[in-house]
Amino acid sequence: MTKHHVTTTVNGDAVEFLCEAHETLLEVLRDGLGLTGTKEGCGTGDCGACSVTIDGRVVCSCLVLGVEAEGKAIQTIEGMAAGTRLHPLQRKFLEHAGLQCGICTPGILVAARSLLERNPDPTEEEVRYWLAGNLCRCTGYNKIIDAVLDAAREMRGADHA
Amino acid sequence: MPDTMTFTKKELRVVGTRPVRPDGVPKVTGLARFGADYSLPGMLWGRILRSPHAHARIRSIDTSKAQALRGVKAVMTSADLPEQKFEYVGPERVAVNFWHMTRSVMAREKVLFEGHPVAAVAATSKTIAEEALGLIEVDYEVLPHVIDVEDAMKPDAPLLFEDMITRGIEPAPDRPSNISKRIELKIGDVEAGFAAADEIVESSFKTAPVHQGYIEPQACLARFDTDGQAELWASSQGHFVIRALSARLLGMDIGNLRVYPAEIGGGFGGKNVPYVEPVALVLARKSGHPVKIVLSREEVFKGCGPAAGSIMTVKIGIKKDGRIVAAAGVFKFQAGAVPGSPVMNACMCAFSPYDIPNVRSVGYDVVSNRPKTAAYRAPGSPISAYAVESVIDMAAARISMDPLQFRLKNVAKPGTPTVWGPKHAHEGFAETIRALMQHPAYTTPLNKNQGRGVAAGYWFNNGGESSAAVHINEDGTVLVATGSSDLSGTRASLAMMAAETLGVEFDKVRPTVADTASIGYGHLSAGSRTTFATGIAVVEACKKVIGNLCARAAMIWDVNAEDVVWDGGCARYTGKKSGEFEPLSLKAIAVKKSVTGGPIVAEVSVNAGGVAPGFAAELCDVEVDPETGAVKVLRFVTAQDVGRAIHPSYVEGQLQGGAAQGIGWALNEEYIYDEAGRLTNAGFLDYRVPVASDLPRIETVLVEVPNPNHPFGVKGVGEANIVPSLAAVANAVSRAIGQRMTELPMSPPKILKAMNGGR
Amino acid sequence: MRYEAPRTLEAALALLSSANGQARVLAGGTDLLIGMRAGHVAPELLVDVKGITEMTSILAENGGFRLGAAVTCMDLVEHEAFAKAWPGVIDAVKLIGSIQVKGRATVGGNLCNASPAADSVPAMIAADASVSIAGPNGKREERIENFTTGPGKTALAKGEIVTSFLLPRRLPHSGDAYLRFTPRTEMDIAVVGAGVNLALDDGGVCRQARVSLGAVAERALLVPEAAAALIGSKVDAAALERLAAAASAACRPIDDKRGTREFRIKIAGVMARRAAEIALARARETS
């Protein structure tokens, strides 16, 4: 089977990889590039654990072929912290106990960041609907929602509002 | 367990605060390693071939073509696992039969459910492994199958085991059946109790099997050396248990298997037993390569135990004043393809919240052609509580009594007998019901098409075997190692108790989940036991270390050790000797370790008793769309007696998670089979767990009636919260539509039908 | 399996017609990749059409919109002019899976997957959209309600692909809406879907209407009887009841894991009526 040579950027860095046509971006990230922070929960786009962004659009990487990444900019959970500084969402998830087992957390953080980039001041309902594609079985979502809303508040600079 | 463990009422510095968990950062940066995240050089991918049939005899399996495929390094079948003796081992409530267990891991004579493993391969790529599965030829003789409990109990039902005689019936039946076991528990004189009742309320109920729904599919990595030693990286609720069971199934020495605990992506009882681990070990042994197996979501649904479904009948007799004088329940549980549903738990917990003089619980454990059931959060108890709390609700309505007042009037207290013998020994039930009654939600008015349901529930909680080691590092920092896997933040609660006991700051204590070669035995993180039992081991180890530190301080001061006490994180001299005896901090002693006797370490193993049960009471408000039967959960309040919340945020999270799972169970989750006995909804698209937009905020009330048998009053928090949830939702829906709903899930078609008078 | 990403429609068509085995068009891939993983489809060739400009553009045409078949749901949802003109189509597109799925899934794919429960199809039928098809024998147009012929079956001939949709010019005082019933708020497949598009005259009387139902037959249905119940009325309660009855009467659903036959029939009327009420409110708001 001939492999495709794909040139892309992952978390801002130029990356080249070889993949077979049927391999998903999720497989390429995890098995090929060793970026195991992106999780597989279902492989059918129903749980959101494999969320990454492609050119700024949040997608399930299990429903993208590796070859489709050609020329695209991929962002994964591993690129969310700015060097040694956690993203406000990451900090707020820790402060608000927004995770229990942590398997859904990378996908939820990626999806939540994508929400806040578009809507810096979402309502609770907007957060709940935006994250409807990210299943969490541990938390009942409460503390996840709290964390996202608090991060949004901080990112708006509305700490003392 | 040590008898020194008594609850302390002292002012606490760390317990009760909300620090960030020590394992948090890697979990928000993607660096935490879960079961599927481990790799080794030369690693192969393992894949499992599963039965397409619900019930069939295996005439033969030909693996030669798969074996011959380039890139395939090993193929296994049940022939690679030793036969096991047929016997039930361990306490009746959780008895294990290895004859059945080895057949669950890999089918032998028959496949008993769709998805039953029949063979496995290890190959150099996933693609080759998948291709190899297609080359394995299995000759099946398809047999008639049976899916539901009622059908499986019929005399002419297809038999899963042709020689299975029901246990627990005297004299033993002379014909085999699918009923593995009958249990009867009783106190008092039930018939006399009903005869004395003013009102009798009775109803029958049905619940569907539901899946634990952990987001991480089972995954492991195994390697096996030619000298018989093996290593396993596994995501489980107890790596010591996985080690013991895997070694037994492979016929190897426990000492030759070292299991490393991967981070676990949710378990809820579903990861207490091995599924993939023995398979990966055999493939690694046969191939000489490390082997990784990661299940697909479809395999998880089809092959890795849902919780039992049931049919139940519950009857209670009450006096006009609301006193319950008699109760009887019949609970028939689906065990799946292997005996061992949690029906005994169901029978035990069912009426436990209440003080009822005459009680009889009868349970049946029934096999059918479904995957073997697995534990799920308070296994058994939410199911029987659904039936009991529904009937309690009907009884309260019958005499026009407030449903919480009715429960409070009958609530169990210390001294109330349980149906299985011992008397209740702990407070907390009444306090929890009162806490819910006082919550503002209970008196908030409702609108049209809305209903409010309440329910209560009991869970044993658990103690048992745990080990902990405390190491004082030379700079005064502390390492706490335990053998308890961390599903939800127990590293934090254990470190907090250590920091509290030692008198040091929380961030000076670093907890770790140690592998099976690095710490003494630890039982599963299940039964709400970790913060309780492992917590006791941690505190005991800290106390032992404190004794050691005091002795070293005495040596430094050249005083009698009996004159040194540990207080506020320092050794203090309390004797009469004169001179300079400035308190010595942990750090000050630690830096002198080399001249005071070397490493400062204590390891303690316990078999913790003194368990106090969990109790929860919940309120649910719903609105039902009268035209579609759709249910919107408007409000949910969960109150639970947690004993003492070590880390309140993580405790609240447990309550919220349990309630959310209970709501899903009540409304939409179910296993749906087709005519051929095949599961039709083996994915998160059609197995409908609640999504974020389905749920309201879940309000928590932490009731703290301390357990006197734990140093900080812990009772255990993981499970009791789901026990009342199904009934709370069912009671809310029933009140909203003015019709009793007796079947779960209460999916919209069922509700609409009930609203339309059964049409 | 071979993967190709042509930059022109002609190149795509050439690839498809020269394929030896099964060739599949890859747009969003949210159905195709699942089918491939499950082993339901094993194409020899994938032709990724996302690099073809005319298939990924939203353009004004004759006062309406030309919508590329490979436009993603999120791109469509965020297209303000389209969303203003066709809020009912947007209602439907917003329901196609999660945010993540919508970031990939396309309206063309939703149609060509030919699920009877596809959300965008009843909304597009109600909107009176047409489908542009290109193939080895040139281009042709098809009414969208005639496109799907059964579960997984379409009117496409071998080598043909859907390139775009044409949505007509909006009439004055017109509005559309799509509603579906699912047990959960999100992430489900429609148990019943209903699209309604209507236009009022200056006196508030309904002059034109199209009603379409999803998940109640082997394909999405255009239900003229339901539309007839509205036309000539002021879309009052009586007309809405007639609409509901006509919608329920048009259903020929099956029992499956997502809903029972009788439930679907009942709910179809309810959804159609509620969608009509939303469409009416939108029509009254537009000049």
What does this structure look like?
The complex is a heterotrimer of chains A (161), B (759) and C (287). Chain A is 32% helix and 16% strand. Chain A is α+β, with helices and mostly antiparallel strands. Chain A has two domains: 4-79, Roll (Ubiquitin-like (UB roll)); 88-155, DNA polymerase, domain 1 (Orthogonal Bundle). In chain A, strands 2-1-5-3-4 form a five-stranded mixed beta sheet, sandwiched between helices. The longest helix of chain A has 14 residues, at 105-118. The model of chain A has no long low-confidence stretch (mean pLDDT 96). Chain B has 759 residues and is an alpha+beta fold. In chain B, the strands form seven sheets. Chain B has a seven-stranded mixed beta sheet, sandwiched between helices. In chain B, strand 16 (324-336), helix 10 (343-349) and strand 17 form a beta-alpha-beta unit. Chain B is globular. Mean pLDDT of chain B is 96; it is low at 1-6. Chain C is of the alpha+beta class and 287 residues long. Among the domains of chain C are: 1-47, no CATH class; 174-285, Enolase-like, domain 1. In chain C, strand 4 (58-61) and strand 5 (64-68) form a beta hairpin. The longest helix of chain C is centred in the C-terminal third of the chain and has 25 residues, at 261-285.
